[in-house]
Amino acid sequence: MKTDSAGRAPWRLVEIWGDTADLGHLAWSIAIGLGVSLAGFLVANRVLASTVATPELARAYAMLAGLGGCVVSGVICALLFAPKREVVEGTAADPRWREEVLAELAAEHGTLGSVADLPPSVVREMKELEIYDLFASYQPRTAPAATGKEGAAP
To answer: pTM to 2 decimals?
Structure first.
């Protein structure tokens, strides 16, 4: 059977809300969440029923304890199950892909404009993100004119 780099079968990974999860870890997380939050609710409900003036108020506080149990179970699951995503930094992206993305942005908005028109704070942020040179060097491809001459501007 084919496995991924961590030894898991690829069919066990699913995408949920834009993130990757292992089905086994997801099932355990649901069980842990249900157990901890329900236990927090039931224990708080029993303890508060005898100490709070009205049953409705005791139930409301017990619901808050159940919500606290959800937070606690989230922390437990985060400690038990590591993320399944792989972040790759420092690899050179295909320059054609970048050109395609910039062309798509220009097509959606009409033009990308000039980086010279940007406020200094935006220029600084673009340089920090290392995308300033990409936008500064972008030259949109012009379609051949109707006259049939290659490279002529429309």
So the answer is: 0.51
